[in-house]
Write a structure and sequence with these properties.
heterodimer, A: alpha+beta, Four Helix Bundle (Hemerythrin (Met), subunit A), Heat Shock Protein 90, five-stranded mixed β-sheet, five-stranded mixed β-barrel, 18 helices, B: mainly beta, OB fold (Dihydrolipoamide Acetyltransferase, E2P), globular
C-alpha cells in the first residue's frame, strides 16, 4: 500500500508535466492541424498518462485518454480529418484529465459527471460527427482546483529563515574540535553529514528560484484563450527561458505581463485577414525574451502587430499637455511612446481610436517601479511594439567557470567562456595576446599560471543581441564549472564597476563575478574614470 | 545610553548599541580586488552579504591593525544598511550619559571614548577610492 501511495504521487507529478506539455502541443497544432508530427507528440503525452493511470486502476482517466488516443492515431494516418472544433474538444479533454488527476480519478458532482460522459462519447464517435453533436465544456468544471496541484504556498520569510538556519548549521563544521586518530570512523561520518548539509542548503536556496520558461508557460493557455476570444491567430515564443530568477520577483510580474499580453492581442495583433492584406503571415507572434545584462534581468515582450498609433499620442500631447508640433517632434521615441504610461493618458485614450491601448498602462509602470525596475517602449507602425523591462536581479543561479588568481576567487558566467586551454599548449608568441588580468588585479606574480581562459562577451552592454568581443587571460587555478547563487554587489563594491555580482558557491564560499563587458577589461589601467 | 565600545589603534570608540546586530567569531573573509586598504572583503552570514572593514585603517587612517587582540567581527545594521567591522579589541557595552559637544566622553576609567555612528563610518568608506588595483 505504501508503495502505491508513493506511485500515485509520482503519477500526479508526472501527469502534471505531461498535461502542461500537452497543452503546449495543442496550442501549436491548432494552427497546423495537418502536422502529423505534432499529433504524434500529443498522442505520446496522452499515452503516457493512460499507461500510468491504468497501472493505478484509475478507470476514468484510462477511458478518456484511450478515446482521445484513437483520434490522435486517426490524425496521424490521414490528414484533412481535423474538423473545426476538434482542438477545442482536446483542450476540454486536457482540462478534464487535469481535473481527474488532481481528484484521484473521482467525479462526484453530477454535472461534472455528465460532461465527462459527453466528452468520452464525442471522442468515441468520428471527428466528422462532431459538428452535429458537439458538446463543449461551457463553463469551468466545478471545484476546479487541480490546476495548482504541483504548487504549495509557503511564506517567503520562512524560506529565508530556513536558509539562515541551514547556513548556521553548516558553519558549525568550522568549530569542530580536533578528533583523535582513533576516530576516523567518526570523522568520515561527519564528512558525510556535512556534505549532505551542503546539498540541503543549496536546494533550499533554489526554493526561491523559478525559470523564466516555467513562468512564461503560465501565459501559454491565457494567450491561446485570449486569441480565440479576439478571433486572432497568435503564436507564443519564449527565448532564454532557462534563466532563473527569484520567484517573488516573477510573481510580481505576473499581472503586468498579462496586461501587456492582453493589450498586444486585443489591439496590437491584427486579424488574419488584415495581416495578410498587409503582407504579413496570418499568424501573429508574441515573443518573450529573457536575458541578463550586467546586473539586470531584462525581459522583452514583443509583438509583430500594427504598432501604436502615433496620431493618438500626438493628439493627446497637443490637447492635454498643450505641446506644440515642434515640441512633440523634439521628443525622443522613448519619451514619445512613454506618454502612454502617464496616469491620465489612460482615461483620455478611452474615447479615442486606440481605446484600451493605454488603459491601465500606468498600473503596469507602478508594478515595475515597485520592483525598482524600468520599462521602456518602442513601436513601429505595422512592425509591432516592444516593451523592455529591466529589473535588478535580487537573486539568481548561474553556472560559472570559477578560478583563482592570487587570493581572489573569481568567476565568469560559463555561457561567456569560449574555451579553457592548458598554459603549456600555447606558444610563447601568443602569450603577448593575453590580457594581464593578474596585473590589473594587482596580484604579484609568484608562480606559473595554469590555464588560459578565452572569454566572449557582447560588444554593447545595453543590448541583448549585438556583436561579440573576445578576451584571453591567464589564471592560477581553475576551480571548475560551478552553480553559484548571484547576489547583487553592494553599494561600495558597485563603485568599482568591475563586478557583475557576488556569487555564493554550494559550499558557502564567496566568488566575485567578473563582468566581461566592464571596464575591468578595458586596455587602459588608470582605474580612475570609466 | 548604552554604547558598544571597542578599541582601534589605541583609541576607544563607541557605537549606539542598538545598531549592533551581532558579534560573531572570526570566519573566512573573501578577498575582493579594486578596493581601498581598509576594505578586507566580504562575508556571507545567514543569507546576507556584509562588507568587512578594518576599524583601525578606517578610523585612524593608519595601516592595518598590528595589535589585534580578538578577531571577532561586529555586524552593524542601521537604516536598512549593514557593515561588518573588525576592531582591535572589544571592550563591551558601556553606559554613557555625558557626551560632550565634540562627541567624546570620558569613561569611568578616565579614557576618552569617541562616539561614532555607523552612518558616519559609511560616509568615510564611501569617500574612499574604488576601482584601483589593490596592492597586495
Amino acid at each position: 500500500m505504501v508503495d502505491l501511495q508513493k506511485y500515485k504521487k509520482i503519477f500526479i507529478a508526472e501527469s502534471g508535466k505531461y498535461l502542461k506539455e500537452l497543452d503546449n502541443f495543442l496550442i501549436r497544432v491548432e494552427h497546423n492541424p495537418d502536422n502529423t508530427a505534432l499529433w504524434k507528440e500529443i498522442h505520446g503525452k496522452i499515452h503516457s498518462i493512460k499507461g500510468m493511470a491504468k497501472a493505478l486502476s484509475m478507470n476514468n482517466i484510462t477511458q478518456l485518454s484511450h478515446a482521445m488516443e484513437d483520434w490522435c492515431s486517426l490524425f496521424q494516418r490521414e490528414t484533412g480529418k481535423v474538423e473545426p472544433g476538434v482542438i477545442q474538444l482536446f483542450f476540454d479533454g486536457s482540462k478534464l484529465l487535469k481535473f481527474l488527476v488532481g481528484r484521484n480519478d473521482e467525479i462526484s458532482d453530477p454535472e461534472n459527471r455528465r460532461w465527462y460522459a459527453d466528452l468520452v462519447s464525442s471522442f468515441r464517435g468520428h471527428p466528422s460527427d462532431l459538428l452535429k453533436n458537439a458538446k463543449y465544456l461551457k463553463a469551468g468544471l466545478k471545484d476546479d482546483t487541480s490546476e495548482k496541484i504541483d504548487h504549495i504556498r509557503v511564506k517567503y520569510s520562512l524560506i529565508e529563515e530556513l536558509l539562515g538556519y541551514a547556513q548556521e548549521t553548516l558553519f558549525l563544521e568550522k568549530t569542530l574540535p580536533p578528533l583523535s586518530r582513533e576516530s576516523t570512523a567518526l570523522k568520515s561520518w561527519i564528512d558525510h553529514y556535512t556534505s549532505m548539509l551542503k546539498g540541503l542548503y543549496f536546494r533550499l536556496a533554489q526554493l526561491r528560484l523559478m525559470s523564466v520558461g516555467d513562468f512564461s508557460e503560465l501565459f501559454a493557455v491565457t494567450i491561446r484563450n485570449l486569441a480565440r476570444d479576439h478571433n486572432k491567430q497568435v503564436d507564443f515564443r519564449i527565448v532564454g527561458g532557462d534563466l532563473q530568477a527569484d520567484i517573488a520577483l516573477l510573481d510580481r510580474l505576473r499581472e503586468p505581463f498579462i496586461h501587456l499580453i492582453r493589450n498586444s492581442i486585443a489591439h496590437g495583433i491584427e486579424t488574419a485577414e488584415e495581416r495578410q492584406s498587409a503582407g504579413k503571415t496570418p499568424m501573429g507572434l508574441i515573443q518573450l525574451e529573457a536575458g541578463k545584462v550586467g546586473e539586470n534581468l531584462c525581459l522583452k515582450i514583443r509583438d509583430d502587430g500594427r504598432g501604436i498609433s502615433r496620431e493618438a499620442i500626438t493628439r493627446y500631447l497637443q490637447n492635454n499637455r498643450s505641446m506644440t508640433d515642434e515640441q512633440i517632434a523634439g521628443l525622443s521615441d522613448t519619451e514619445f511612446f512613454g506618454t502612454i504610461f502617464d496616469t491620465d493618458f489612460s482615461s483620455a485614450a478611452e474615447t479615442s481610436d486606440i481605446a484600451g491601448r493605454g488603459i491601465g498602462m500606468n498600473v503596469v509602470v507602478q508594478a515595475i517601479e515597485y520592483l525598482s525596475g524600468t520599462i521602456t517602449i518602442a513601436s513601429q507602425p505595422d512592425r509591432g511594439t516592444e516593451f523592455l523591462i529591466r529589473l535588478p536581479v535580487s537573486l539568481s543561479v548561474v553556472y560559472t567557470i570559477t578560478f583563482k588568481i592570487g587570493h581572489y576567487m573569481l568567476s565568469i558566467p560559463t555561457a561567456n567562456v569560449e574555451s579553457i586551454d592548458q598554459m603549456g599548449s600555447i606558444g610563447s608568441f601568443k602569450k603577448n595576446e593575453l590580457y594581464d588580468l593578474g596585473g590589473r588585479l594587482g596580484v604579484r606574480k609568484d608562480k606559473e599560471y595554469s590555464h588560459i581562459m578565452n572569454v566572449m562577451y557582447p560588444e554593447s552592454k545595453n543590448s541583448l543581441t549585438s556583436g561579440q568581443n573576445q578576451i584571453k587571460f591567464a589564471v592560477d587555478t581553475i576551480i571548475g564549472n560551478k552553480a553559484v547563487m548571484v547576489l547583487p554587489v553592494g553599494e561600495l563594491l558597485a563603485k568599482t564597476r568591475a563586478f557583475g555580482g557576488v556569487g555564493i558557491m554550494e559550499n558557502g564560499d564567496i566568488t566575485m563575478l567578473l563582468d566581461p563587458g566592464s571596464r575591468l577589461f578595458d586596455s587602459f589601467t588608470d582605474g580612475e574614470t570609466l | 545610553m548604552e554604547y558598544f565600545t571597542f578599541k582601534a589603534d589605541d583609541r576607544y570608540w563607541g557605537i549606539d548599541a542598538q545598531f549592533v546586530h551581532r558579534v560573531i567569531e572570526r570566519m573566512p573573509i573573501a578577498r575582493v580586488p579594486f578596493v581601498p586598504a581598509c576594505y578586507l572583503g566580504l562575508i556571507y552570514y545567514r543569507g546576507e552579504l556584509f562588507d568587512v572593514v578594518d576599524a583601525v585603517n578606517l578610523l585612524s587612517g593608519t595601516t592595518r591593525s598590528v595589535n589585534r587582540k580578538d578577531a571577532r567581527i561586529v555586524l552593524l545594521k542601521w537604516n536598512q544598511q549593514k557593515l561588518a567591522l573588525i576592531p582591535d579589541e572589544i571592550i563591551g557595552l558601556v553606559w554613557f550619559d555625558n557626551i560632550k559637544g565634540d562627541g567624546t566622553v570620558y569613561s569611568h576609567k578616565n579614557l576618552t571614548v569617541q562616539i561614532i555612528t555607523p552612518a558616519a563610518m559609511w560616509d568615510l568608506l564611501s569617500e574612499l577610492s574604488y576601482g584601483r588595483s589593490s596592492k597586495i
